[in-house]
Write a structure and sequence with these properties.
Blueprint: H1 3-7, E1 22-30, E2 33-43, E3 46-55, E4 60-69, H2 79-85, H3 89-92, E5 99-107, E6 112-116
Antiparallel strand pairs: 1-2, 2-3, 3-4, 4-5, 5-6
């Protein structure tokens, strides 16, 4: 499954393969810590906005932000998973997005951990 295709609500569409990412942001490097603000990037159907930092000495990631998908959460899946997720679509459709999730990225550059930021 292509993540761009899932973000557009077309998880089985193999023709969605020409993905152009957009990336912008600000950073500051001081004392081996890179601090990012307003870091945004996207692919067709999905956008991510993050703030946080990366410690170069400790190889430690700590980012928080939001993921916005054009598709509803149920549209990112097929088969029984699609039907299982359909009732919760309204809970994740916020801020004009089909799916809006607060996310975090932690861990190291070699083993990043992606998750929902509760």
């Amino acid at each position: 499954m292509d993540s761009a295709a899932a973000g557009q609500g077309q998880p089985k569409n193999e023709e969605v393969d020409e993905v152009i990412s957009r990336m912008t942001g600000r950073f500051r490097l001081e004392n081996a810590l890179i601090t990012f603000s307003e870091l945004t990037f996207g692919v067709p159907g999905a956008d991510v906005a993050l703030n946080g930092g990366y410690n170069l000495d400790q190889d430690d990631l700590d980012f928080r932000g939001a993921l916005r998908l054009q598709a509803k959460i149920s549209q990112t899946m097929t088969g029984w998973k699609h039907w299982l997720l359909k009732p919760i679509d309204p809970f994740f459709a916020k801020h004009g997005a089909g799916t809006f999730l607060k996310i975090k990225v932690t861990g190291s550059s070699k083993q990043p951990k992606f998750g929902i930021d509760l």
